[in-house]
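Page header: ASSEMBLY MODEL / two components / 468 residues total.
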Amino acid sequence: MSKTYHLTTPLSDETVSKLNSGDIVYLSGILYTARDAAHKRLVDLLDEGKELPFDVKGAVIYFVGPTPPKPGDPIGSAGPTTSYRMDSYSPRLIAEGLKGMIGKGKRNKDVTDACQEHKAIYFGATGGAGALLGKQIKSSEVIAYEELGPEAVRKLEVVDFPVTVINDTFGEDLYQIGRAQYEVK
Amino acid sequence: MREIRYEEIVKNVRDIIVYSASNLPEDALNAMKAAYENEKSPVSREVLKQLLENADIASSEARPLCQDTGLAVFFVKIGADVKVIGGLLKDAINEGTEKGYVEGYLRASTCHPFTRANNKDTVGYNLPAIIHLDIVEGDKIDIEYAAKGGGSENVSRARVFPPSAGKQGVIDYVRECISDAGPNPCPPLTVGVGIGGTFEKAVISSKHALFRNIGSVNEDPEMAELEDTIKLELNKLGIGTMGMGGTETILSVHIESNPCHIASLPVSVNVQCHSSRHTHITI
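Prediction written out in full:
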């Protein structure tokens, strides 16, 4: 049975261990944005033994490249991008203490294994609900890689940002569970 | 000969781009409402509700429906009796595209294929537009436009089959494509299927099929029947809205077919997410 939680970042091992695939979570606090290009740079920094532009311990990364804000708005439309493009980078960040990722679409086994081993959650946000999700973002500040434009790393302050647990710390996958229920063989 | 000013084309293109980004066309909106009514999965229903709410917010507050405001794709038919005054038609479409994306606060998503450097400071803001041009009878310019997002484009595919593959081969190929794609292309989907022609003709036909209004009936009865068959097959996959599991995975299947070489059966599948931002104007 799906449960609903209101959680504030950063997330602890204890908190993420409570969550099950299918649970609905309203996240408040700080999210960091990163897409493919930024992920590559973050992992390169780790390989070089350098510090990341934000503290990854307990952090939640949102896979998003928002539209430019209109004058007076903190951000434009800001829904999730497809997550598999980050699959080759996410396990490394999870091993460093990343506790949550928000995106849409399937993750590979390396990512879901890392979620189990190091206790992290893959959350799904509704793809194509950019106008609605953008309204839950109260402030936005570019903290790294400004030259990447929409792919820059941003620090977002969110209130009740709606997400669903896709992959939990127990190896469950909502996409598989949901589809199996309605598939006609 | 009718003269149409370059600036008039620029303005029309700019306006449809800005409008389309935040207003889901009526056919797509109706299809989404129908999906919400028919969906059996409570989780998918909840997500559909969120998407209908998103469409409301986008339209009433003039915010982009989705942050992926796409690459601008055009199918343009220019009448043989039209003379464009003050510049080239293609340049006017590109200029209108850039104006629309800049002035509408839309995302610039074009980049170099390998360096991934964004085109906005070099080629132009979200340029170049993808333009398919045709010359027809008459004294008008007919413009079909869609903002094509990356997620659904990434799962699209094409293959040239031997003729023996037949109709069943086409059905199996489309099913495999949508099944493998799962949640990634943002279902519920419109599926464009290009059949026949040459390799590239099939691909372009599958793209153009996505511009047809959802719910419209194929003029070719055989293809209309095949569209229904494929839709039923695809909905059996159980993917549901955003892959959460459900009965309503497909809003519509659109086929465009062409005569082909005696040795080949080209098939292309081009996928469109639920945010089917397309429009059609005549100048």
